[in-house]
Amino acid sequence: MSTDQHFLIVPASGIGSRMNAQQPKQYLKLENGLSVLDQTLKTLLNIEKIKGCVVAIAENDTDFKNSVFVNHDKLLATAMGGKERLHSVISALNTLRPFAQDNDWVLVHDAARPCVKASEIENLIKQLKDHPVGGLLATKVVDTVKKSHGNIVESTLDRSALWQAQTPQMYRFTVLSKALKNVVQNNLMITDEASSIEYLGLESVLVEASKSNLKITVAEDLTLANFYLKQNEN
Asked: Which of 203, 136, 197 is nearest to 170 (CA)?
């Protein structure tokens, strides 16, 4: 039986400029009264296998102190968020280092994905438990996808092999640390942890999840998130 522990990192230092809101999107209130970040933390911290969490927040963050989870027993620490998501995750990994063993698992989850289902995270953990590297939640692409030059169609991509990446993305502590270090050293561009794993030539497992695990990016996403959260309650 595996004794590897599971830890959570939540990068929450972005400003969410596309929301056109007065405060960062992770602190916007949902209809249930929780902030986007607190709803996210509520789901993940309730998962028994997750033993501890580090939240990466901006240097000038004045909102996290009001989180209902600021004194939660699984919140190990906050980390200093960086300019890009990559830097926030590295900072959180460094903060997590005293608590985690090399082979332990790290789940990185977007603060702005409050509708993720605990059952799907538990399935991710189950599917990857014996894997040497890790993987991520994702959904299969069902729409026809066009590659363009400006607004002119260049080609149609084969959607049968296309997936939309979600989070959590879950990797072994040392593997993820090495992958992100490689990205920094070689000045590579990535938008998620799985991309850094690809640059090392390692394989990630795709674990299918539902489309309700949306990332709040623009104002209309908040309405959709409220809808999905009500559905999840039923």
From this structure: 136
Secondary structure of residue 66 in the 3-state scheme: helix
Nearest Cα neighbor of 108 from 124, 127, 119, 123 is: 124
Integer Cα distance of 117 and 180 in angstroms: 27
What SS3 state is found at 163? strand
Burial class (CB within 10 angstroms; exposed 0-12, middle 13-18, buried 19+) of 41: buried
| Helix residue ranges, H only, the chain | 36-45, 85-96, 118-128, 173-185, 193-199, 219-233
Predicted confidence at residue 219, as pLDDT, reads 87
In whole angstroms, give the CA distance from residue 17 to residue 5.
Answer: 35
Q: Are 63 and 24 in contact (CB under 8 A)?
A: yes
pLDDT computed for residue 233 by the predictor: 73
CATH architecture classification, 6-233: Alpha-Beta Complex (3.90)
Above 90 in pLDDT, residue 156? yes
Beta strands at 75-80 and 50-57: parallel, antiparallel or unpaired: parallel
Could you tell me the residue ranges of all domains in the chain? 6-233
Give the residue from 86, 44, 187, 198 showing the smallest Cα distance to 133: 198
Mean pLDDT of the chain: 94
Contacts of 105 (CB under 8 A, 6+ apart): 4, 5, 6, 7, 125, 128, 134, 170, 171, 172, 173
Looking at the predicted structure, is the pLDDT value of residue 227 above 70?
yes
